[in-house]
Amino acid sequence: MKDLNRHSWKAAVTGGDMRQVYVAEALGEKGFSVMVYGLPKDPEQEQVKKASSLKDALENADLVIAPVPFRKEGRIQGQDFYIDLTEENFLKYLKKGSLFCAGGIPESFHKKVGERGIRCFDFLEDSFTAMENTIATAEGAVAQAIIRSPENLRGSLCLVIGYGRCGRTLAGYLQNMFCRTMVWEKDREKAAQAKAAGLQALEERELPHALSLAAFIFQTAPCVVLEKERLKYIRKDTCIIDIASLPGGLDYPAAQELGLSPLHLLGIPGKYAPKASGEILALAALGKLSESVQQEGAL
After folding, report:
1. Is 281:123 a contact under the CB 8 Å cutoff?
2. 162: helix, coil or strand?
3. Could you read off the pLDDT of 180-192 as tens digits, one per residue?
4. Residue 6: is its pLDDT beyond 60?
């Protein structure tokens, strides 16, 4: 069985945003021989080398880290500039027994690589990665709120919609910045957790009034919560930050019609904290690789 502390492991880091640069550097620092392809910038680490093609990167790799999300607008991130970054080529060149890591891996792709003896690890389904990334998400949302509003965030009335992983971390940040923080969460247990954390947990009947008062609204729920009837309560000068995945957590055509200016903030970890987020991805991938080695022996 190989030892993860030895320099015998080979990894490939392909496509994506700046997080991938830091993933490659983190793996190189752990002693991996790393090949990169389709990254926005060349990593600065002696163990990291640039591949000439996707085939060159993948064919000997024990560990492959692809973008988060794997596909964006129907294409793998980086495919616009590296045309061989396709699902078909990944399937063609991935080594049997390797571990493939990415975010939002399509079910059809997952099935096909499994049939070829390749293991998959989806970062977006991993609770450790998801929870760690809420820090970058919360900080990015707070940063944009400060930039977009003429008001101070400290002492302001803030409304956080949703108290899942991201909502919980974000509400905690706002609370620590001495914001008057309200939370609306339809799940009774999560709402109780918000109340136990010292936050003002709202009933649904209280939401319209809260929308009319809030200087900052952070929409974190993974569904459309702010429909037109609710948007009507919001002032035009309210700063609205929506961090829900596509298609977002509010009715954007209705918001425009009402003169509101919400910001749909996507891919926050890669934009605001790529180094920290990349290191989190590398750590999660190494944890999964170590687990696989312990369970199944050498790759």
Report:
1. yes
2. coil
3. 999 999 999 999 9
4. no
CATH superfamily of 134-266: NAD(P)-binding Rossmann-like Domain (3.40.50.720)
Number of Cβ within a 10 Å radius of residue 210: 19
Residue 175: partners with Cβ closer than 8 Å, 6 or more residues away = 181, 197, 198, 199
- Architecture of the domain whose range is 10-125+273-296: 3-Layer(aba) Sandwich (3.40)
Q: What is the pLDDT of residues 257-287, one digit of tens each?
A: 999 999 999 889 888 999 999 999 999 999 9
Phi-psi region of 74 (alpha: psi -120 to 50; beta: other; left: phi over 0): left
The H or E element containing residue 281 is helix 274-296
C-alpha torsion sign, points 72, 76, 77, 81: negative
Angle, alpha carbons 238-271-216 (nearest 5°): 15
Give the gyration radius of the chain's Cα atoms: 21
